[in-house]
């Protein structure tokens, strides 16, 4: 039996915050700031956004590894943060996140129509996130109340390694019964999420304006002058450069057109691994 390249996409693996819900990805970032503050360590929202896309324990560890934050921790506790300290921060972060997730649960404008268009093209909808399962359960329920139900959900603590490892994306492939990773597209607003898709052998689409990279509300995004928006897009393209996304678009609203383009490329024999 010979291998044959897929000729059409079979699934889209969508991120959650900044991709389908929570325009600007505020739910996780603000809680990192608040959790550190409860330990008398100041972290700015810009610093908190840096490792976005990782699992939350790894995110906190990465923040604590930054010299300026490690020094603030040392000033407060007379020692550098250990893994036990990271776990203590994580354990404070979790109830705060669960408590406040509903404040940033609105669907991104146009997301439902875009996802319906993908389903009309025959795609299954998988999903994954940097949230652990206990938070994902609440995110999923809030999204259901707003009309969005993915075909499968994988939380970061349901696999051996979270992003940028490919485990969550590949867990969706298995659960959805997809025949080839090249028939999948991973859509995300963070560079770890794009690396996840790349490492899984999928097509990748980076979102430049709806998520962590721009970090604005929908109204703020729409109010940006054209020259300022163009400058922000150029900055964000550089943020994603190392993760090598196949496509960059502003929001999920533009995704159906990208799906058509990928299907045309697959029909010509192109694969994501070769691009």
TrEMBL record:
It comes from the Bacteria. One of its GO terms (molecular function) is magnesium ion binding. Belongs to the HAD-like hydrolase superfamily. PhnX family. One of its GO terms (biological process) is DNA repair. Mg(2+) binds at residues 15, 17, 189. Binds 1 Mg(2+) ion per subunit. It is an enzyme of class 3 (hydrolase). Pfam families: Hydrolase (PF00702). SUPFAM superfamilies: HAD-like. Its EC number is 3.11.1.1. Involved in phosphonate degradation. Homodimer. InterPro entries: HAD-like_hydrolase_sf, HAD-like_sf, HAD-SF_hydro_IA, HAD_sf, PGP-like_dom2, Phosphonoacetald_hydro. It catalyses: phosphonoacetaldehyde + H2O = acetaldehyde + phosphate + H(+). This is Phosphonoacetaldehyde hydrolase. One of its GO terms (cellular component) is cytosol. It comes from Pseudomonas fluorescens. Keywords: Hydrolase, Magnesium, Metal-binding, Schiff base. Its cofactor is Mg(2+). The active site is at residues 15, 56.
